[in-house]
Amino acid sequence: MRSFAACLTLITMVSAASLAQAQQPAAPAAPAALSQKQMMMVERLQANALQSRLGLDVLESLTTEIGPRLAGSPDEARARDWAMAKLKALGFENVRIEPFTIPYWHRLVENAAITSPAPQKLYVTALGGSGPTPVGGLEAQVIGFPDVASLRAAPEAVVKGKIVFINERTVRTQDGSGYGVGVVKRAQCQSVAQSKGAAACVIRSVGTDSHRFPHAGGSARSRDGANLANAAVSAPDADQIARLLARGPVRLRLEIGVETKENAPSGNVIAEIRGATRPDEVVVIGGHLDSWDLGTGALDDGAGVAIATAAAKLIKDLPMRPARTLRIVLWGSEETGLHGGRAYAAQHKPEAAKHIVAAESDFGAGRVWRLETDFGPMAAPYALALHQALAPLAINPGPMQSGGGPDVGPLKELGIPVVELSQDGTDYFDYHHTPDDTFDKIDPAALAQNIAAFATFAYLAADSDWDFRAGR
């Protein structure tokens, strides 16, 4: 690894040119100046992060001692208690829970089978927000569609009484853009099929693997009152249904049982390193504490919890505190509707002007390969300085068009600048929301690089007087 100071000299012209191409107006050629102390601290943070086991230990503890953490469940409550104890033990300040309540949904029964023409069991999971089938299940003819658009275009008479099956594949990409396209069927099949009188909706899992694991996920974020039985089948089972449909009529039996509650307890867990000279100015980093309940939530999003916690601990252990307050937020109940992110934004809206910048880790634990920012047009020198500070970790410049991530999205809506340390998600959707999302899928070296990246960003944002809104 090159030293931080050497990389500053080597990449200034390359980074400036990359920024100029990625944004309008073009970025200036010179980055914001860093003090000698800041340069030394960044080099120290990166070296320590790449050698430390803290992030791995935090992640192992969460996934082993708590396991799955369904939003609103007693398991998520145990995770909050775990986080409180862990953050206090690591010496953070103002450790607390900010509670809120959510609509609770939990699967109790999920079974599916082809009954005709070739009887066989299918591997299926109920999607979040699914309604139940009648007790004992339902059986109906299957009608297949390639995507939601074709389902929307179908006459009601063709769909009524049938089990809708959408067999759209998810494209494997580094940046996760294939998921954004593929997830539409998961979000919309239930409501569209119900509006046309369908008996149930079954989709090909939103994933890039070929394993016989179904992928969980939410289906009712539109809050349109849809309560149709809604499930995902594994990719090989989707292929099997499609092959049979190509040969003639197919009948399927589906049984789903669910438990729901109007108001279940959840909450965000928060901890801080109070700023030395400007403690009312806040830099936020975090990940979400809840997970779907098929696996143990190692990649989604135990990794984010570990990355934020370990990065902040490295900054806490520096000889001097940063000028601004660094706040860790472990959001609750992200998976079932971004409840934690929305609750945090609502509660802290009066302090939005004092929130300097926010970032979260919620895309697994693949190596960070690009930094995206959402700064004001006059803050380009700060983006360039961050790019150069991250260059020793093989992180490339990205455009000033970042969405930031799910839980910081509500902060962005308040005008708070966001940053995205983009992780390599090439294989993320092989494991995402499946029973295979477990601790053994973590690459320790990649996790350490993530921690080094978040520590670098968070330290420079907190120890500077940079205004990331400049020019807005």
- Please report the number of helical segments: 14
Briefly, what CATH class of the largest domain?
Alpha Beta
Low-confidence stretches: 1-29
Count of strand segments: 14
Q: What composes the largest sheet?
A: 14 strands, mixed
CATH superfamily of the largest domain: Zn peptidases
Descriptive notes:
- With 472 residues, the chain is α/β, with parallel strands linked by helices.
- The chain has 2 domains: 4-103 and 263-462, Aminopeptidase, CATH 3.40.630; 118-249, Glucose Oxidase, domain 1, CATH 3.50.30.30.
- The chain has 14 helices and 14 strands.
- The chain has helices at 4-22, 36-51, 54-65, 74-89, 148-153, 156-159, 177-195, 235-247, 298-316, 339-347, 380-390, 409-413, 428-431, 444-462, and strands at residues 93-116, 120-122, 124-126, 138-145, 163-166, 200-204, 230-233, 251-273, 278-288, 324-331, 355-360, 368-373, 396-397, 418-423.
- Strands 1, 2, 3, 4, 5, 6, 7, 8, 9, 10, 11, 12, 13 and 14 form a 14-stranded mixed β-sheet that branches.
- Helix 11 (380-390) links the parallel strand 12 and strand 13.
- Helix 1 (4-22) packs across helix 11, helix 3 (54-65) crosses helix 9 (298-316) and helix 9 (298-316) packs across helix 14.
- The longest helix has 19 residues, at 4-22.
- The chain is elongated and about 75 Å long.
